[in-house]
Design brief:
This protein is α/β, with parallel strands linked by helices and about 325 residues long. It binds manganese (II) ion.
Length: about 325
């Protein structure tokens, strides 16, 4: 891994804004919090701004209560042009929402750290390690290179990010090195059962109701090999749950051996429809997502729907079905 450019980037700036992708997940939040603590340790000024709120289940990771939802310019530091921006867990500047509009054009420089598959060359400095299990895993390499000390809070953030992004150490990019980092984090004091219970057993009751409502939309096609679920704005409102609480529902159909692709259309409260895709084995859903201007990993990807859902649904199905011949 070529670490010198990011080490140099960190050393050469004093003020940082950290951000991650829209609807931040465990890796996005954990990576921001870990990087935030390390930069603070190095004496840097740090702010964390996201376009969407931190999901309730990841609040325990934000020990310093630094993760802020960016709503207006007035929240930003006055000397924004003296700040450098680090974009975590996405390599697409169209995927950072309000930060792209209010921060990106104003900062002196930006740097991307990510592990999603990418085809185009990024213009800015960047560190994209496609084989890494998580962005947090890349951060671990950077921290070791810089010889900073990883304290308990930083270890919790890194461990949670890795647990989330590897589906508890089982997704395809999980490596022996992923386990080595986890071992070290546990040696620092992280309790794996505590992290599990925070991430997977502290959901709201309304999120469970939301899950049952979405699961009832399940449609099975192509000999049960393709599963489709839909969550509308009304479904969210009727359940009392939150958009971000639906992040695991897409994995449920994959529990069936026959299901090889799970497709999930989800509308947020602003009416924006997104399509998430998960697959097992050789079906490359990142390639499918890219044909709709999205992106991701081979087995987990997504895109924003720019056309009516019925039309997108058919186009996605046509693309997916190509993999079954
Ligand atoms: Mn990630």
């Amino acid at each position: 891994m070529v670490l010198q450019p990011i080490v140099e980037f960190i050393r050469s700036h004093d003020k940082f804004i950290l951000t991650a992708h829209e609807t931040p997940d465990g890796d996005a939040i954990g990576s921001e919090c870990a990087m935030g603590r390390i930069l603070a340790q190095l004496g840097k000024t740090v702010h964390i701004f996201n376009s969407d709120p931190i999901p309730r289940k990841f609040m325990f990771v934000d020990a310093d209560r630094k993760v802020t939802t960016l709503r207006s310019k007035s929240q930003l530091p006055k000397d924004l042009n003296e700040y450098a921006l680090i974009i975590l867990d996405t390599n697409d500047t169209n995927n950072i929402g309000k930060v792209a509009e209010l921060v990106l054009p104003e900062v002196s420089e930006y740097f991307i750290i990510d592990h999603h598959d990418i085809e185009i060359d990024i213009q800015s400095g960047n560190l994209v390690q496609k084989n890494a299990s998580s962005t947090a895993e890349i951060l671990y390499h950077i921290f070791r290179e810089m010889a900073v000390s990883i304290d308990y809070e930083t270890a919790i953030a890194l461990f949670t990010a890795i647990v989330y992004d590897t589906g508890s150490f089982v997704y395809p990019k999980t490596s022996a090195f992923t386990f080595q980092i986890a071992t070290e984090m546990v040696q620092i004091g992280v309790n794996p059962n505590l992290v599990y219970s925070k991430v997977y057993e502290c959901n709201s009751i309304s999120s469970v109701i939301l899950e049952s409502k979405v699961l009832s939309t399940l449609e099975l096609l192509h000999n049960n090999s393709i599963a489709i679920q839909i969550m509308t704005k009304e479904t969210i409102l009727n359940s009392g749950g939150k958009y971000e609480e639906a992040d695991q529902i897409i994995n449920i159909p994959l529990k069936a051996e026959a299901v090889r692709v799970s497709i999930f259309f989800k509308e947020d409260l602003e009416g924006l429809m997104r399509c998430s895709l998960r697959s097992k084995g050789d079906i490359d859903v990142a390639e499918i997502a890219r044909s709709f201007s999205g992106g991701g990993h081979k087995n987990a990807a997504g895109f924003k729907c720019r056309e009516p859902i019925a039309a997108v649904r058919q186009k996605v199905l046509d693309k997916v079905k190509e993999y079954f011949h």
